[in-house]
Fold this protein.
Amino acid sequence: MEKKSYKLGILVSGRGSNLSSIMDSIDRKELHAEIALVLSNKKEAPALKKCQDRGVPSLFLDPKSYAGKSQYDLALVKELQARSVDLICLAGYMKLLSSEFISAFRGKIINIHPSLLPSFPGLNAQKQALDYGVKFSGCTVHYVDEGVDTGPVIMQSVVPIYDADNEEELSRRILEQEHILYSKALQAIIEGRIRLAGRRTVQKQESL
Ligand code: GRF
């Protein structure tokens, strides 16, 4: 019997470089999944164009067409459930998820954030790190809960901050690591190598 394919639902709002890196990892067969649906809350998101170019199913749902946040999020849930997605990946999705969405997919929503959480949650994480003056920042893949970037950490990559760095240069170097880390974390989850133990996640090593 053929092994069931692992289905990802990806939420985007913008550029979609993490989305592209996930598509590339799937093409290289390093990430054993298929993208069942990409959902955007922004009509003009470049991420949607990337889906069209690569034949990946995508949909723009306009928040203005719904009475409120819960109704909008329930529409997203409906689309994702209709495609039997196994895991939701936030990839530059710039809208906080409602508790209705989180309850529908509890423990199955993953985000990537451009700092070493719990430092510098929320917007402009790279600028926050520079303004604070830390010498290392990086990126974090984590489970999503009701808070802003507060869910259990799955994996992190460290990026040094150099004296000459500005926000653009630091963001560029962090993004390079994001593109490696996100697929690595997703593949570990797909292989069942990530176990949640309270606030911590524990990783079983890859079998050789
Ligand atoms: C990334 O820096 C990601 O960490 C953050 O939003 C940005 C999205 O970039 N959550 P992209 O749309 O994947 O290029």
In short: The radius of gyration is 17 Å. The pocket of 5-O-phosphono-beta-D-ribofuranosylamine is lined by residues 14-18, 91-92, 112-114, 175, 178 (CB under 6 Å). Strands lie at 7-12, 34-40, 58-60, 87-90, 109-113, 136-143, 153-160, 194-197, 200-203. The first strand starts at residue 7 and ends at 12.
